[in-house]
Amino acid sequence: MNEEWQLHGSAPELYQRCLVPAVTAIWAADLVYRVGLRSGARVLDAACGTGVVARAAAERVGGHGWVAGIDINPGMLAVARSSQAGPESGIGWFLGSALALPFADAGFDVVLCQLGLQFFPDRPAALAEMHRVLAPGGRLGLNVYGTIEHNPATCALAQALDRHLGPRASAAKRAEHLLADTALLHRLVSDAGFRRISVATESRIVRFRSAADYVRIQMTATPLASLLTTREGPADRLIEGLIHDVAADLQPFDTGDGLAFPQEAHILLADT
Questions:
Q1: Which string of DSSP letters, residue by residue, matches 204-221?
Q2: How far apart are CA 260 and CA 214, in angstroms?
Q3: What is d(CA 268, CA 201) in angstroms, rounded to the nearest whole number?
Q4: Would you list the DSSP string of 25-53?
Q5: Which tens digit of pLDDT belongs to each residue from 201-254?
Q6: Under CATH, domain 3-151+176-208+262-271 is a member of which superfamily?
């Protein structure tokens, strides 16, 4: 991933505690189910973050299988290791890049990549590496966010950032949706040598206690936190301005007990 997607300090812990249960665990369960993992399978989780997909996969493949999680971010891997169930959990954690996977050819039955491909600086190289490490008859399963217009919370926050900090402030947030074009996604995977490619577009309901909770988590547990350290002026004033704008835009999704808004993603499956 790009250096801008490194998380430092307490951000990886906050990410695991706040964003994994609210967002990424939902999509991890969906991805692992769709790819059809079997007992004993060898699985690679590329750009594993704090390990939500790797742990879900390990439960599926059982004691006779094995899961490797690799990420470029040492802070995220430290949290992944600390969250591991124990030495018998069947997961190995590796620091490294998806652009140069430190694994032998044909060493895995399944490669998974959750909400990460859009951030790789060289997507064709990453997909070629995923193809290389898959055994004949292996399967790729990945997901990416859909269009930002179909993800109202992201859209509201991006617009608020641009409004308060200038037109480039939301670049990191908008980058989450760089592969929203399913034709582009299909072509990238096909060009890497995969076949029998299918793409499904799904929406899930994501819940936060309030707009304030959503904004504060985004501005502390993601790379958006860097915006608070590089700007002039009090951070609290910026946060309150963002909360005001996001709350107004997300008012239709306020249930009275918190926010419940749709989030769209594309899920791609392909074979070697």
A1: EEEEES-HHHHHHHHHHH
A2: 11
A3: 9
A4: HHHHHHHHHHHT--TT-EEEEET-TTSHH
A5: 999 999 999 999 999 999 998 888 888 776 666 788 899 999 999 999 999 999
A6: Vaccinia Virus protein VP39 (3.40.50.150)
Say which residues have a Cβ less than 8 Å from residue 145's Cβ, sequence separation at least 6. 115, 118, 151, 154, 176, 177, 179, 180, 263, 264, 265, 266
Find out whether 147 and 211 touch, Cβ atoms under 8 Å: no
Reported as a single tens digit per residue, the pLDDT across 140-176 is: 999 999 999 999 999 999 999 999 999 889 999 999 9
**Stated pTM of the model:** 0.92
Nearest to 6 by CA among 199, 223, 189, 192: 223
Retrieve residue 268's tokens: 């791609």
**Measured between alpha carbons, how far is 259 from 115 in angstroms, rounded to an integer?**
22
Find the helix or strand (DSSP H, E) in which 203 lies: strand 195-208
Distance CA 108, CA 16 (A): 26
The type of residue at 136 is P
DSSP character at residue 17: I
What is the DSSP code string of 53-110?
HHHHHHHHH-TT-EEEEEES-HHHHHHHHHT---TTS-EEEEE--TTS--S-TT-EEE
- Return the domain boundaries, the chain: 3-151+176-208+262-271
- C-alpha–C-alpha distance, residues 216 and 142, integer Å: 28
